[in-house]
User: What shape does this take?
Amino acid sequence: MSVHAVASQLIHAAPERVSAIYQDYGHWPELFRGTVRATRLIRENDTTKAIEVEHATAGRVLNLMTVISPARFAWKSSSRITTRASPTGSTRTRAGRDSRCSRTSS
Assistant: This one.
């Protein structure tokens, strides 16, 4: 069985500002205090950065951040996060996660 969960949040800031903050992975330990301990750039090309993130509980996780435009990016890890401009000039951030569940016998 698999489960797909999605959460969405409206951030009252310009998409370019939100995107710039998320793209500054060196400051993720400050931005996500208590969750992210450290980040390290593994590799990059013109649009995508592979970033190793050391999480407080999950350990080291590879994140792929793809810049689509100055106001839009996609971030893949165990969750998928995307941003886009909303009609009000704010930013809509959407996170989704797919999980697989297996049945075990006792």
Q: What stands out?
A: Confidence is low (pLDDT under 50) at residues 99-103. Residues 15-23 form the longest helix (9 residues). The two ends are 18 Å apart (CA to CA).
